C-alpha cells in the first residue's frame, strides 16, 4: 500500500511514533492557556481605560487653556462634485465623415456636457473617447470648450 505522496509507504508510516502529551499534562496546558487569556483580557481592559482617561484629560486641558470645548469630530464627507464643461458644434460634418461625437452634439441644440457626451457616445474606454473628441475638434466640428468648472452634483 502507498499514499498520495511519492516515497511514503503506509506500512512505514504506520510504524512512526507520534508523541502525545498525557491527559493530565494536556489539562495543565489548557489551564495555563485559559489563565494567560484572562490576563490578556485584563490588559486589554486596562489599555481601553487608559485611552479613555487620556482622551478625557486632553479635552479637559484644551477646555482649561482655551475656554472652548472639543467637539466630537464627524468624519469629513467629501462633496459630490464633478468637472463640467460644455461642448458645442462649430460646423456640421459631411454625411460620410467619421464624426460620432459631433453628430450627438448636433441633436442637442444648446450643446452637451462632456459627461453626457461620454455617456451617449457608447465608447467603452475613456481614452478612446478623448482621442475621438480631440480629432473632431481638430477637424473643426466641435468648438474647443471653455475652461471646465467644478460644481456640486445636483446643483445645476
Q: Key terms for this structure?
A:
two-stranded antiparallel ribbon; 156 residues; mainly alpha
Task: Please write out the topology.
Elements: H1 10-13, H2 23-66, E1 81-84, E2 86-87, H3 100-106, E3 112-113, H4 114-121, H5 126-138, E4 149-152
Antiparallel strand pairs: 1-4, 2-3
Description:
This protein has 156 residues and is mainly α. It is built from 5 helices and 4 strands; from the N terminus they run H-H-E-E-H-E-H-H-E. It is flat, with a radius of gyration of 36 Å. The mean pLDDT is 84.
Shape: flat
Biggest sheet details: 2 strands, antiparallel
The helix count comes to 5
Per DSSP E runs of 2 or more residues, the count of β-strands stands at 4
Query: For the residues shown, what is the average pLDDT?
Result: 84
What fraction strand?
5-15%
Low-confidence stretches: none
State the assembly state of the protein chains.
single chain
One letter per element, helices H and strands E, the order comes to HHEEHEHHE
Helix content: 40-55%
C-alpha Rg (nearest Å): 36 Å
Distance between the amino and carboxyl termini: 78 Å
Q: What order do the strands of the largest sheet run in, or round the barrel if closed?
A: 1-4
Structural class by secondary-structure content: mainly alpha
